[in-house]
Amino acid sequence: MIAAGLLMGGGISGEALAQQVSNLPVVKAVVRTAPATPAPAQASAPLSGDAAVAREANWLQRAGWPLYALVDKFSAGAPLTDQANCIAVAVYHEARGESLEGQMAVAKVIMNRAASGQYPTSWCGVVKQPWQFSFVNPRTGYMPSVDQTSAAWRKALGVTRLAVANAVQSVPTDCLWYHADYVAPSWGRRLTRVEKIGAHIFYRS
């Protein structure tokens, strides 16, 4: 384009044109490259159900949620495993008339027993052990049904989800026994009382 313009001006020899062209500044091409697109961050591994419940419940507790609100929130969720369902059924039959703190303590006693080495190692094994929980048939291990449409069952589900996720503090891990306050079993005298929650008295060895 530049050389053509000079020629069209007329009166310029080829030698002069060459001289003028040689004196033109050199224009360097600049190539702009698009910035590299950063690689997407790798997604973290999904949390297991219990870990997800624990993390969310911990966050909600720091935000000021009381236990009743947590139980209500986690009364709905993924179906319980067979083992966790045994805890929920025990909470329903043993403690549905108790406070949520009392229901949580009953769930924790079952878990503590399974982890203690002194009782069956599964939650269902603990619940169905003969002569341990009055609602269970000691000869067959049969557990009566629950009213799955009731508020009491929904609370038992919420309590159980929080308990098995270790999301809420309750009785200590060496608390393995409890009884109603209207009875006085002889074994209670050989144990150390932990606390009384509602109508239940809890013990450690």
Could you write a compact summary of the structure shown?
About 45% of the residues lie in helices and about 10% in strands. The protein is mainly α and about 200 residues long. A hairpin with a 2-residue loop joins strand 2 (about 190-195) and strand 3 (about 200-205).
Strand order of the largest sheet: 1-3-2
Count all strands and give the number: 3
Low-pLDDT segments, ≥5 res: 1-10, 26-45
Helix count, DSSP H or I runs of 4 or more residues: 8
Gap from first CA to last CA = 100 Å
Name the helicity range: 40-55%
How much of the residues is beta strand, in percent?
Answer: 5-15%
Mean pLDDT: 85
Helix/sheet category: mainly alpha
Major sheet details: 3 strands, antiparallel
Radius of gyration: 37 Å
Question: What's the layout of helices and strands?
Answer:
Layout: H1 2-8, H2 14-22, H3 49-62, H4 67-73, H5 82-95, H6 100-116, H7 123-128, H8 151-164, E1 175-180, E2 192-197, E3 200-204
Antiparallel strand pairs: 1-3, 2-3
Task: Give keywords.
205 residues; mainly alpha; three-stranded antiparallel beta sheet; 3 strands; 8% strand; globular
What does this structure look like?
The protein is mainly alpha-helical. The chain has eight helices and three strands. It has helices at residues 2-8, 14-22, 49-62, 67-73, 82-95, 100-116, 123-128, 151-164; strands at residues 175-180, 192-197, 200-204. A three-stranded antiparallel sheet has the order 1-3-2, covered by helices on one side. A hairpin with a 2-residue loop joins strand 2 (192-197) and strand 3 (200-204). Helix 5 crosses helix 6 and helix 6 crosses helix 8. The chain is globular and about 45 Å long. The N and C termini lie far apart (100 Å).
